[in-house]
Specification:
Layout: H1 4-12, H2 16-37, H3 45-53, H4 62-78, H5 83-124, H6 139-158
Helix pairs in contact: 2-3, 2-4, 2-6, 4-5, 4-6
Length: 159
């Protein structure tokens, strides 16, 4: 006998909002992997897996693809005047703004801090651990990610 939780998880696999979101995220990350593989500085399998599963920044923006696919599919399923769509569209705007603005600025600041610290460490024989350089997104990366997310949501909601 099927439990209610099992039936709900099966229903989730038929939900166009869920499907467009998960496919947008994975396809955007997969495209990043392909781009990294064909770059001259491509590394080994470990680098490919890290890019697919964890690395942020780069073309296309998986943050934008995910957020736009959720907003688009919610508009198709719930309607553009629904409260859930309003929530989804503002969520997408916050995610995109953060990916392009705050995270990008933080990454640039971390890069400069690491350069200064490296220089000071060498000059004064200090032990310094570099801070993580978070990679945000450029406008073209966000645009391509948004188009990708919209297209995937459109496909799952209309086909």
């Amino acid at each position: 006998m099927n439990s209610p939780a099992r039936l709900e998880s099966i229903d989730l696999l038929h939900n166009p909002i869920f499907l467009s979101a998960i496919f947008s995220l994975f396809i955007a990350q997969f495209i990043k992997v392909l781009i990294n593989i064909f770059r001259p500085r491509a590394k080994g399998l470990r680098d490919v897996l890290v890019t697919f599963l964890w690395r942020t920044g780069g073309m296309p923006s998986s943050h934008s693809a995910l957020a736009v696919s959720i907003a688009t599919s919610v508009a198709f399923v719930e309607g553009p005047s629904s409260s859930v769509f309003i929530l989804a569209i503002f969520f997408a705007l916050v995610v995109i703004r953060d990916a392009m603005g705050v995270r990008r600025a933080a990454g640039q600041q971390a890069r400069v801090l690491n350069l200064i610290s490296k220089e000071l460490s060498a000059r004064f024989d200090l032990n310094f651990h570099q801070v993580k350089e978070v990679h945000g997104h450029s406008a073209p990366e966000v645009l391509v990610g948004s188009i990708l997310g919209f297209s995937i949501a459109l496909a799952f909601c209309t086909l």
